[in-house]
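pinned: reference chain
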Amino acid sequence: MYTNNLSVREQEVFRFIVEHIESNNISPSMRTICKNVHLGSVSSAHRYVHSLIDKGWLKVTKNNVGQIFSYTPVLRMK
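pinned: its C-alpha cells
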C-alpha cells in the first residue's frame, strides 16, 4: 500500500485505524484515535480522519453497533 500522498501524521492515523479495525473488528472512536496517536485534541483526530476520507483512504459506512459512523480503509495500490 502506497501512502506517499499522505502527511506523516495522516499515515500514523491511517495505520492506527487499520490496526484497530483488524484487531477489534470495529473502527476506533475519535477519542481513541486522539489518545493512541498522541494528538492534542479530539478535533485534531476529526480533522485527520476527514482528510483521509477526502483523499479517498477511508470511506464512511453506517454501523449498527452504537457508533454513528464507522470507517473502512480503502486499499490502494500504485
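why pinned: The mean pLDDT is 82. Residues 3 and 31 are 24 Å apart (CA to CA).
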